Amino acid sequence: MKQTRRQFIATASTAGAGLILSSMKLPNKIPPKNGFSLNIYATRWGYKGSMDAFCKDVKKEGYDGIEVRFPTNEADEQALYEALDKYNLRFGVLTSSGGSDFEAHKESYQANLRKVSSKKPDFINCHTGKDFFTFEESKALMEFAIETSKVSGVPIYQETHRGRMLFASHICERFIDAIPELKLTLDISHWCVVAESLLHDQKAAVEKALKRTCHIHSRIGHQEGPQVSEPRAPEWQNAVDAHYAWWDKVVNYKKEAGEPLTMTAEFGPANYMWTMPYTQQPLANQWAINVHMMHEWRKRYL
What we know:
Elements: H1 5-12, E1 37-43, H2 51-61, E2 65-68, H3 74-87, E3 90-96, H4 102-117, E4 124-127, H5 135-152, E5 156-159, H6 169-178, E6 184-186, H7 189-195, H8 203-212, E7 213-217, H9 237-257, E8 260-265, H10 286-301
Parallel strand pairs: 1-2, 1-8, 2-3, 3-4, 4-5, 5-6, 6-7, 7-8
């Protein structure tokens, strides 16, 4: 029996909930050392309501906290703090800098990090630099983040993201080798797009990145894009398997080291979300997919 698009969206969050992951091999259960923890955050990306409504929905679903861009005015900042207190949620911050001129970019980046680190989030995730900055320019931005983290006590991570400094595994490997204190947010879906592969021929570079990972964006990409249409659909089995294999290693490294790990379920809205031509109606439910990812992580790793 054929389904309409509306019927598919309505049933995808329930009927297909275990379709792919139920057939996946579970990771070896490593007893975690003292100090290991896993907190899972919700992204506000694509959410249309107020901060209070967002946090209410996040709490209802069972997340530990939220990852958001820090407010740019006092009223929104106060609304953030009130919602966090009201719903007893943690928070991490996503920050970025724009502009193609390095000096202007650096000035903006440094000001953002100083401001946000003073607010004491759980972590700061950086969309930093440009893929065309020189090695030394990018290295200077990373080293500023490391020093800011030491002064503030707030963990600061650099994200593996297209268009940014760490846009590919072989580029990231060079920085890992040069900067022992570099810590990563792993969004490996981007590397799959850049390499047009599931990175089977880049295992050494990927392994180095997994060992430096402290935060994960659990979106599943594929060879031709940063986001599969619906991670529970069977046609994406290979991509799902590849991403969980990478995440399994990161979790095990953290358990063995007795170190904390954070994750944000970060499937995005259009144009990351697949849509119908002309109408731009989404082919799946972004919120339901991210809730699904949160629950799968809890079942798999906790």
